[in-house]
Amino acid sequence: MSVLIECHGLTKVYGNSKALDNVSFEVQSGQPIALVGPNGAGKSTLFSILAGYTPATSGEAKILGHNVGSPELIGRISALPQDALFDPNLTISQQLSFLARLQGFSRRESIIEASRVLELMLLSNVTKDKIGALSHGMKKRVAIAQALMGQPELVLLDEPTAGLDPANARNIRQQVMALAGETTFLISSHNLEELERLCGEVLYLEQGELKAQQLIGQQATQHSNHNTPTQAKEGTHPPAISYLSLRLTTKNSVLDAKLKALKGVSAVDCQQGDEFVIAYDYQQNPILDQHLLLLLAESQISYRQITHGQSLEDQLFRK
Ligand code: ADP
Predict the structure, then answer these.
(1) Could you report the per-residue pLDDT of 126-178, keeping only the tens digit for each?
(2) Nearest residue to 277 via CA among 307, 247, 252, 245
(3) CATH fold for the domain made of 3-222
(4) Closest C-alpha to ligand 1, atom 5
C-alpha cells in the first residue's frame, strides 16, 4: 500500500458559496474508497479537482505524489463523470479506440484496448453500435469501460450505479470487485449498502466539510474541518469498541436487557424492536457472537442477520 491521495486545506469557492471548505485527508491505494454525503455536499467538486478538471481555490491535492492536473498523472488516473457524453456519430468501438489513441496507444493497440475494456463491461456485443442505440445502463457501462482504459491506478467513479436496474448495477459492482487488485476506485454513491459491500473506507462530506474518515465496519471518528492529513489518517485506526449488529425476524421487547447482561457488552441500541447494535469490548469477550447465538437459541428467538461491525448507515447516521 502507498499514499494514493493527499489533500490539505482543499477549498473551492463558487461565487459566495464554498463547495469545499478546508478539506484534508490522506488515503492509501488498495481497497475501494467510498465518498458519501448529501446532495450539494461537494462530492462532484472534489472529483473534478482530483481529476484535474477544475482548480481548487486554495489548498493542495496530490495523487501518487503529483499535484492534481499534472502531466505525470496522464494515464494513471481516470474519471467517470456523472453525465459522460459520447459522439453520436461514432460506433462504441471507434470512440473508445480514438480515446485510447489520445492516451498514446498505437492504432493497433488502441483497438485491442477498446475491445478489452468493452469485454470487461460485458459490452462485446455492442461494439459496432452507436451510443444512441444503447440503453441508459449500457451507456453507463461504456463510460466506465472508457475510464478503465490503460489500467489506471486510480479511477474516480461518480455515482456509477445511479439510475441503473439491479442487474446492471450488480454487473458494475462485480467489475469493480474484480479489478480492485490492480486499480483503486474512489466511488461516490447514495447506496450505502453497495458501498459497504465494495469499500474498505469511507470519506463523509457535508456542506463542503469532511466530517468523518473511517474504516467501514468500524467505530466512527468525527473530524473537525481543520484537521490535518495525519489526523484524518488516525481516524482509520482500529477502534477500542467492537460492534455486532443483529436483526430479528420479529420485534422483541425483552431481548434488550438480556443482551446488556452478556459478558463484555457496554451498550445496546435498539431500533424499532427488531434491530440492535451491540457495543462491546472485544478484549473482554472475543466470542460474543457465539454467546449471542446461544442466547437466541435458548430464548427461542429467530434472527434474520447477525453481522460484525456496524452498517455504514449506522456508522454515519446513528446518534
Ligand atoms: P454533490 O456532488 O455532493 O452533490 P457538488 O460538488 O455538485 O455536490 O456541489 C457542491 C456545491 O457547489 C453545491 O452548493 C453546488 O450548487 C455548488 N456548485 C457545484 N458546481 C458549481 C458550479 N459550477 N458553479 C456554481 N456552483 C457550483
Answers:
(1) 999 999 999 888 888 899 999 999 999 999 999 898 888 888 888 889 989 98
(2) 245
(3) Rossmann fold (3.40.50)
(4) 42
Assess if CATH 3.90.1150.10 describes domain 241-317.
no
Q: Say yes or no: CB of residue 19 within 6 Å of ligand 1.
A: yes
Residue written as grid cell 446488556: 260
37 lines ligand 1 (CB under 6 A): yes
pTM: 0.81
